[in-house]
Every structure is written in C-alpha cells, then in structure tokens.
Amino acid sequence: MAESTLTARSLERLLGDWRAGAGSAYHALAERIRLLVLDGRIPVDTRLPAERDLAERLGLSRTTVTAAYRHLREQGLVLSVRGSGSVARLPGAPTILPAPPAADYIDFSKAAPPALPWLPDLARQAVDDLPEHLGDAGFDPIGTPALRAAIADRYTARGLPTTPEQIMVTIGAQHAISLLSRALIGRGDRAIIEAPTYPHAYEALRVAGARLVPVGVAPRDDEGWSGQAEAEAMTRAIVHSNPVAAYLMPDFQNPTGRSMSAETRERVLDAAARQGTVIVADETTGELDIDRAESLLPMAAYGPAIMVGSVGKTVWGGVRVGWIRADRPLIRRLLAVRSPGDLGTPIIEQLLVTRALQHMDDILELRREQLRAGRERLEGLLAQALPEWHVPHVDGGIVTWVGLGAAVSSQLALAARSHGLIVAAGPRFGIDGAFERFLRLPICSPAETTDAAVQALARAWRSLSGAAPAPDQSLLASVI
Question: What is the dihedral of CA 171, 100, 104, 421, to 10 degrees?
C-alpha cells in the first residue's frame, strides 16, 4: 500500500528542467524520475501521479508518460497495479531499504571519514569493561553514568558548563533528531530549516508533521551573501512564521561548510527566545575544525539551545552513538517519547565511546590532518579537471558545496552513474527541487577514491557538454 501520494504539480517541481539534452522525451522523463527515486526525493512507497494527470501538467501526450512509466517498471523502480496506480520502488531490496550499489561503482555520495586506525584497540578495551555492566538487563534508555559524565565534561571543557543530568545518549545523531522532532513538533507546526540542509533532518521533521520554512544559507565566500544577511533572514523568518522549532547546523554546515559567526548565533538565539522558538543545534561536525580563523563556543553558550552530537564523523559511522544536551524537563519528556520506539543504546558501544572521549583531542588532531589533505587534494583535482566550477575553500567539516554554473546537477548525477560514480545531486539537500546549480562533494574520502571520483566526474561533465574528456593521467600528475 502506498504511504503517500505525489501530485502532478509536486512532481513537476521536483523534475525541474528534465527536458534538457538530446534523446526521446519519454526516456528523459523516466531517467529524471529514476534519479528522484534513487536520491530519496521520491520516497519508496509513494504513489506517482496518474498518467493522464502528469501528461496534462507537463504538456505531453499520454503515450509519452505511459512509455516513461513502462521504462521505470522494466527497471524495477515502479510497481503498477490496475486500479491502484503506480508506486515508487527500489529493485533488489525490501521497499524500505535502498538497493546496495554494484561493486564496480564509486560511492561519492556519502560524507563520512574512515574508521579510526586504533578503533579495534578501543573496542577491545570496551569488552574488558563489559563485565561490570552484566548485572542487570542491559536496557539503557538514557545512557551509562560514565558516558553521560564524559559528554558533559567535554561540553564544559569547550566553554559550555554541563552536568550529566542534561545528557541523553541516543543511537546516533539521526535518532536524536527524530526523538526531538517527535517531542517538539505537533502536526501542522512550523519548523525552520536551513536551505540547503541535511536531508534526513528535514525528513524527520516532516514525518513529525512539521510545515517546513526554509531559510537560505551559503558558504562564507559565496558572492552576495554574508553572515549579516543570514542573521537577518533567520530572525525575520522566526518573527514572521512563528515556528515551534528551528533545526540549525551552526558549525561547518552540511552541505555548505559554512559556520555561523558569534554575532549571528546571538541574534538568532535572541529572536528565538523572544518568539518562543526552540533551537536545535546539530554539532555532528562541530569539532572538525581545519583552520577556521574564529574560535567559537557551542551554540548553547550564546543562549538557550538544544544540542545534538555524535561520534559518527569523528570515531566512525559504524559506532551508532549520539546524544542530546537539553534541560532536565526535556530529558524526562524525551524518555517518554523514546520508550515506544526503542529500549536504549547498546551498552558495548557506549563503553567504546566512553573510552574514545578520553582521547578526543588526539582523534581531532588526526581528523584535522586528514581533512586538510582531503580538502587540498579535491580542490587541486577539480581546479585542473573542471576549472569552470566554483569550489569554496571550506575551513572545516567534511564537505564542500560546489557551484556548477548551470542548473544541471541532476543531469550530472545521472551521467555520473553511467561512468561508474554515485554522487548526490544538489536538490537532495533542498526541498521542491531547489539547488540544481550545486553539487555536494566530500573532502573526507580516501585519496584513491577522490582521484577516481574526480576522473569520473570530469568524464560525466564533458559527456553533458559534448567535449572530449581530459587525459586522466595528466590530471593526476599535476596534483599528486
């Protein structure tokens, strides 16, 4: 059964300029819908518009839309049942899970550093700590006292005095965002998001029933934008839309890499406090500073804010431990919200993270070196292979938000798949098909992955423009 229905008007917005390029109309339409499903912009189990409705909306013959849907069915991306319409699917996997990429694909869509080299040692130490925790049932909905104290101490050392009672340990940052969405948002409530933003966060807000209010952000060196402009736009949105909550990434934002200035933080928090808006500040990448000129405190040090953090970008994405820092009444409320969905964070992973936090300064130093090298490598390769692109020089975080100079991000993502590369198109990080002029690229991938990804991107880009690709080896030799 379809979980939601996509209207012809909504699909038209998502499609954007799908007609660009050569080839038949039905094939171009099918390929753009295919990308929307693979990207998650059309969720699995969504009912697509009726063929007649979509044909009228797009000004096409019904035969063209019918052929496009048939092509999608042949690829396993659409299931059509007489009387029930056509529903989005993913081939080769349960409908709620994305199909794993083939082994010969380079996945450049994920922004996640490799595991710490000494992670196995931390895991062995955690196992040694386990016996003292085996005396009870092992269900822990709030976090072990030792881990909560370690997280609180970390905040305190960074300039935000915190007690263990203000901490709830979660199953990663995404779990924390989902819990907060359910606790704070009622159906129909407005919630501010940055645009662009982390897609799984706005998805969690939407599932909770929020009406999203996007506010534009941009990299620090983006022409025509500044921290002052962002502060004005954010405070104006808070005052005019009267949102219940705002989800923000103040440090090394995903995907733009920008950081809010201290003045912007203060202005936004002041406006939120006067309006009664709850600020949720996601610090998942907050400590991944490469060479930021300004020293900044955690957002809640400037005013009332809920903090979300995790070790997914510092220790390893496979260690599913995150946390929420909030006032005690909200922590108690979150416990009530959590119990129907899960019974707590695994103890063994909490013990590992408790050990890891003792070495966080060393971990961050290693990540700083890796990210600096990754940033320089990606910038150098792109400057040689694709000099027409605008590549902001980020000063921290794990990604850069590349300007393509044309609204072709979705087309490029499709072309890249033909060259063995998976990238996330810009609209994945917006709503209603925005950001076709941008592409998010990670600076945290291994060198060999970055090398191969840029070569594939260059070939895909030139296949769109019809130009011959640059020689791969000379491209690498100029950077290595």
Answer: -70
The pTM (predicted TM-score) of the whole model is 0.81
Rg (CA), the chain: 23
In contact, 286 and 155? CB cutoff 8 Å: no
The three-state (H, E, C) secondary structure of the chain, written as one string: CCCEECCHHHHHHHHCCCCCCCCCHHHHHHHHHHHHHHHCCCCCCEECCCHHHHHHHHCCCHHHHHHHHHHHHHCCCEEEECCCEEEECCCCCCCCCCCCCCCCCEECCCCCCCCCCCHHHHHHHHHHHHHHHCCCCCCCCCCCHHHHHHHHHHHHHCCCCCCHHHEEEECCHHHHHHHHHHHHCCCCCEEEEEECCCHHHHHHHHHCCCEEEEEECCCCCCCCCCHHHHHHHHHHHHHHHCCCEEEECCCCCCCCCCCCCHHHHHHHHHHHHHHCCEEEEECCCCCCECCCCCCCCCHHHCCCCEEEEECCCCCCCCCCCEEEECCHHHHHHHHHHHCCCCCCCCHHHHHHHHHHHCCHHHHHHHHHHHHHHHHHHHHHHHHHHCCCCECCCCCECCEEEEECCCCCHHHHHHHHHHCCEECCEHHHHCCCCCCCCEEEEECCCCHHHHHHHHHHHHHHHHHHHCCCCCCHHHHHHCCC
Q: How far apart are CA 170 and CA 337, in angstroms?
A: 12
How far does Cα 419 stand from its chain's mean position? 24
Cα 269 → chain centroid? 23
Query: Burial code of 285-300, b = ≥16 C-beta within 10 A, e = fewer?
Result: bbbbbbebeeebebbb
**By C-alpha distance, which of 193, 170, 302 is closest to 249?**
193
Q: Scanning the structure block, which residue is given the tokens 């690498």?
A: 476
Give backbone dihedrals phi and psi of 456, rounded to 5 degrees, phi first.
-65, -40
Tens of pLDDT along 247-261? Answer: 999 999 999 999 999
Which of the listed ranges 103-107, 121-125, 292-296 does the model predict with the highest average pLDDT?
121-125
Q: Tell me: the pLDDT tens digits for 4-60?
A: 788 998 888 888 878 866 578 999 899 889 888 876 668 667 889 999 999 999 999
Spatial CB neighbours of 441, under 8 Å, sequence gap ≥ 6: 108, 378, 382, 399, 400, 402, 423, 453
Between CA 476 and CA 454 the distance in angstroms is: 10
Q: How far apart are CA 285 and CA 281, in angstroms?
A: 11
**Structure tokens of 470?**
């640059």
Parallel, antiparallel or unpaired: strands 245-248 and 211-216: unpaired
Bridge partners, 279 (sequence order): 246
